[in-house]
Amino acid sequence: MTDIDRYFDEHPDAVGELRKLHRFVDANDAAVRLFEADSKEHFMAKASDMLPANRNSNSAVYRAMFKRGTACQGERTLVTFSGRKVPIVWRCSLPNDLEGYRRLFFYAFDVTEQKENRDRLEALRAEMARSSRVSLFGELAASILHEISQPLSGVRTSSDAALRWLERDTPEIAEAVRAIRDASRWAKDATEICRKMRGFLGKVPERPVQFDAVEAVDSALFLISPKANSEGISVETNVTPGIKVFADPLQVQQVLVNLLVNGIHAIDSVPADRRKLSISVQADGADATVFAVQDSGCGINSETLQSLFQPFFTTKADGMGMGLTIARSIVERHGGRIWAESQPGQHTCFRFALPANQPVALPSD
After folding, report:
1. Superfamily grouping for domain 206-357
2. Are the beta carbons of 280 and 237 closer than 8 angstroms?
3. Partners of 110 in the β-ladder
4. Residue 235: beta bridge partners?
5. How many Å apart are CA 200 and CA 221, to the nearest integer?
6. Would you give per-residue pLDDT tens digits along the chain (365 residues)?
7. If you classify domain 4-110 with CATH, what class do you get?
8. Rounded CA gap, 185 and 173, in Å?
């Protein structure tokens, strides 16, 4: 055997068969309490049932043995005698000689409280991210509402035209049908705009998937283009065709919108012929994708540059100082990083890197 993971994939019953060779010989008082057993004897009599074979956990031990590791660990969920589920982190130190494998010591740590705290923290982060999207949308609302008024006006104009064609002494059916089709197309455009706005503002769970980076860029441009156009700012894009990213599409869109809106503010005092924003997406090796948003503003000094991602730091009079902090939180939670580069008097460029592919999952239930 040269590839133990492949072996377990090809022999799904192997873990269970190997597990039958194990025998529980002792447990300390903490283990008895963890399983809510009446006594050590009670626990030992049912230990094999209470700790059934688990593909992820058991194969992690075999993998470490196979590779001659010194220790292994993982996560799983136990069920106590009362039926309560307990999440644990387990660890096992591996011996240096074969004789040592006659008895292995496993340690289990109840992480119920930590997991609950982590879940609460994730809920707070998700709510902060949504609040930030709502705040961003408020800033862009006027320009976006102007954008949606165009297809709605088209619906009304086409509908009125269809009625006029039908009310003639000799109805022009072909012209009426054409006008109705135009109204249907305009209505579809308005519906799509509403769908995108609802998605951006919605309270949805984080769902990392692999998707085309251009999708996030197009969605972000949909939100900021009306405001950029009203400010006389041209937006250029340079996205490597077919480039992928593994993340939550909505949250990548949020980071891009944050950076683009910051760029729009940075261009406020720039002459009309220099008012430009650019977005580029390129691969960084085979495992990372780098997004870059650059403005043609006046740049940022080195002292301000170092504080940009700190909570409540802002250079805007009415800013909350949370946009870049949330952007950093989103990027880092996806296993990426974000940074800024600036040349005072010329421009500022924000970059963030995200995984291009799904990370290899750690052994867990």
Report:
1. Histidine kinase-like ATPase, C-terminal domain (3.30.565.10)
2. yes
3. 88
4. 277
5. 13
6. 788 888 888 888 888 888 888 889 999 999 999 999 999 999 999 988 888 888 888 888 888 888 888 888 888 898 999 999 999 899 998 988 888 888 889 998 988 888 877 777 666 666 666 666 666 666 566 556 655 666 777 788 888 888 888 888 888 888 888 888 888 877 776 776 666 666 666 555 667 889 999 988 988 887 788 778 878 888 899 998 889 999 988 788 888 888 888 888 888 777 777 888 899 999 888 789 999 999 888 777 666 666 666 654 455 544 444 567 778 888 888 889 888 888 776 788 889 999 988 875 544 43
7. alpha beta
8. 18
Look at residues 319, 134, 126 and name the one whose alpha carbon lies nearest to residue 207.
126
156, two tokens = 């009304």
Q: Which residue has the tokens 């540059």?
A: 305
> Amino acid letter at 111?
V
The Cα 292–Cα 280 span in angstroms is 5
CB-CB contact of 169 with 187 (8 Å): no
Asked whether the whole model's pTM tops 0.85, one would answer: no
SS (H, E, C) the chain: CCCHHHHHHHCCCHHHHHHCCCCCCCCCHHHHHHCCCCCHHHHHHHHHHHCCCCHHHHHHHHHHHHCCCCEEEEEEEEECCCCCEEEEEEEEECCCCHHHHHCCCEEEEECHHHHHHHHHHHHHHHHHHHHHHHHHHHHHHHHHHHHHHHHHHHHHHHHHHHHHHHHCCCCCHHHHHHHHHHHHHHHHHHHHHHHHHHHHHCCCCCCCEEEEHHHHHHHHHHHHHHHHHHCCCEEEEEECCCCEEEECHHHHHHHHHHHHHHHHHHCCCCCHHHCEEEEEEEEECCCEEEEEEEECCCCCCHHHHHHCCCCCCCCCCCCCCCHHHHHHHHHHHCCCEEEEEEECCCEEEEEEEEECCCCCCCCCC
Which of 305, 270, 294 lies closest to 347, judged by CA?
Answer: 294
Tokens for 238, please give them: 């340079």
